[in-house]
Amino acid sequence: MKLGDLVVRKSYGGDVLFRIAALLQNTAVLRGTDYRLLADAPVGDLEQVRNPDELRGPRTARVQASESVRRMQAERAHAREGMEEEASTGQRKPYFEMPGKVLHLDGDVNYLKKSMAVYRQLRMPAEGVHCHESQMAAAVADLLPKVMPDIVVITGHDGVYKNRTDYEQLSSYKNTGNFIQAVRTARSYDKSRDSLIVVAGACQSHFEALMSAGANFASSPARIMIHALDPVYVAVRAAFTPFRETIDLPDVISHTISGMRGVGGVESLGKYRIGLPNIKPTNIVPTIPAAEFG
């Protein structure tokens, strides 16, 4: 076994695909490839995977991810068609779109690349930054005044430590404390949940603590694993909900891959606006490439 190898845990029936992030004597630190889960396991419990598509669990996760992206694209296409029809019949003048701008901080560089690809496909203005979860509070403090986003996503990997049964104690979580500090930093910059939308957390994160810190949406109410694209889906829906409307909580959360056991939130106004006139060239706002912090 070496760093970067794809593996599953034999004791868990190979349900989740991981990549080895570190090797500490006979223990491996693992980061989920489809779920935002941080785990560790004895090296002897690991089985190397050469073809992930042969495994049912990882294959299902990839299918769910593809369906989630298709759903986002279909929702945007449907909304755009409706507005274009209104413009063609004279009910609405030609317009340009201004979706909410996203600052996405991710503890996993591969997840960040996947997330940025979705933002680009949907023609959303977004800036992505890769940094360790422990650096996120400092990154938020540095980047918010520079990027001036409407939505900030604070995510990466998390998990409950083995043999911990007290889910109320933050010490039971691997990165929830880091996410909380980042959320608090964001709220010290902008206290209004309608002015700055904060999406925070990863697998098994302490949902209630993240919400109390100031998040609009967070994981994970039932302390379950969440899919890598769940925070992205929430950010997309926030970015394309009109600024006079409240984001449809039941609809947004139920359409994440993890559902209401994995993601929750509070009423928040959307960030989407339209403008006139529709000046050429195109209204597409380039997505800023992902970067490293620190």
Structure in words:
This protein has 294 residues and is α/β, with parallel strands linked by helices. The protein folds into two domains: 6-54; 68-292, Rossmann fold, CATH 3.40.50.2300. The protein is built from seven helices and 14 strands. The chain has helices spanning 56-88, 109-121, 136-147, 176-189, 207-213, 230-240, 249-254; strands spanning 6-9, 18-24, 27-32, 38-42, 46-48, 96-98, 102-106, 126-130, 151-155, 197-200, 217-218, 264-265, 273-275, 288-292. The strands form three sheets. The protein has a seven-stranded mixed sheet with strand order 12-11-10-9-7-8-14, sandwiched between helices. Strands 4-3-2-1-5 form a five-stranded antiparallel sheet, with no helix packed on it. It has a two-stranded antiparallel sheet with strand order 6-13. The longest helix is centred in the first third of the chain and has 33 residues, at 56-88. It is globular and about 65 Å long. The mean pLDDT is 88.
Uncertain segments of ≥5 residues (pLDDT<50)? Answer: none
Please write the CATH class name of the largest domain: Alpha Beta
If you average the pLDDT, what whole number results? 88
Helix fraction, binned, reads 25-40%
User: What is the CATH H-level superfamily of the largest domain?
Assistant: Response regulator
How far is the first residue's CA from the last residue's CA? 29 Å
Order of helices and strands: EEEEEHEEHEHEHEHEHHEEE
Question: In the CATH hierarchy, what is the architecture of the largest domain at level 2?
Answer: 3-Layer(aba) Sandwich
Number of domains: 2
**Shape, please?**
globular
Organism: Cohnella ginsengisoli
Pfam families: Peptidase_U57
Protein name: Sporulation peptidase YabG
Region (Disordered): 50-69
